[in-house]
Specification:
With about 240 residues, the protein is an alpha/beta fold. The protein has helices at about 50-55, 80-90, 105-115, 120-135, 150-160, 180-195, 205-210; strands at about 5-20, 20-35, 40-45, 65-70, 75, 90-95, 170, 200-205, 215-220, 225. The chain has a single domain (about 35-60, about 80-230), classed as P-loop containing nucleotide triphosphate hydrolases (Rossmann fold). The structure holds adenosine-5'-diphosphate and magnesium ion.
């Protein structure tokens, strides 16, 4: 990996949305640490705050209260330029609805983040091809999203997330629109990526998806609950 984030750390993170007179407390005091190389699932029902949490983890939004630090640096003290750099280079995003551009081939879709990063055309193409090969789509590079199955489209979006070689892969309900076969393929891909040292954070409401991660935390009404490890529970003999 070209860039590493050794640790993501949230302390007392709250997020309140104000729409007119109504205030929604989407996150109500989140403490969370994720170290390089972890594969974490954050699981909770609809409306529990998962997407809000993902947006903060991915530096797409900021907490109302509390701190979010990347390798010890408070994100709220970073400039917009630094944040854009983190979003473009250090974090890869995968969304439920793929978010691919319908008029572009798989290859062009995967090249896009490199266009924004100013990578020369020849390198772009090579790296996009390599990313598509990694997700098993070497033979579908010239297809447009509409000519691919849901599972294949999601693999294109994983390739797009990976093409910048980010330290962290952040996925919000990545299998929410997929059948069980395609879900299995995406989860296998995540396991392979994690085996090579990449940090993965998956947000899901599906227990099967959560169970495949190496660490699982639950979110309910904007609060996290992590099972206490048996060895650390202080049980008396
Ligand atoms: N932009 C927003 N403005 C106002 N309320 C929001 C906004 N985004 C999310 N919410 C509210 O915050 C809560 C958590 O939403 P969200 O993080 O999307 O949950 P999840 O992803 O778990 O379904 C919900 O009550 C939702 O209605
Ligand atoms: Mg959501």
């Amino acid at each position: 990996m070209s860039v590493v984030i050794h640790q993501l750390k949230m302390t007392g993170v709250r997020k309140t949305y104000s729409t007119g007179v109504v205030k929604v407390e989407a996150l109500r005091g989140i403490d969370l640490e994720v170290d390089q190389g972890e594969y974490l699932a954050i699981m909770g029902p609809s409306g529990s705050g998962k997407s809000t949490l993902m947006h903060i983890i991915g530096c797409l939004d900021v907490p109302t209260e509390g701190t979010y630090e990347l390798d010890g640096t408070d994100v709220s003290r970073m400039s917009e330029k630094e944040l854009a750099e983190i979003r473009n280079r250090k974090i890869g995003f995968v969304f439920q609805q793929f978010n691919l551009l319908a008029s572009l081939s798989a290859l062009r879709n995967v090249e896009l983040p490199l266009v924004y990063a100013g990578v020369p055309a020849h390198d772009r193409r090579e790296r996009a091809e390599a990313a598509l090969e990694k997700v098993g789509l070497a033979k579908r590079m010239q297809h447009r999203p509409g000519e691919l199955s849901g599972g294949q489209q999601q693999r294109v979006s994983v390739a797009r997330a990976l093409v910048t070689d980010p330290a962290v892969l952040l996925a919000d309900e990545p299998t929410g629109a997929l059948d069980s076969h395609s879900t299995g393929e995406i989860l296998e891909l995540f396991e392979d990526l994690n085996d090579t040292g990449r940090t993965i954070v998956v947000i899901t409401h599906e227990p099967d998806v959560g169970a495949r991660a190496r660490r699982l935390v639950h979110i309910h009404d904007g609060l996290l609950r992590e099972p206490v490890p048996v060895a650390a529970s202080g049980a008396t003999r």
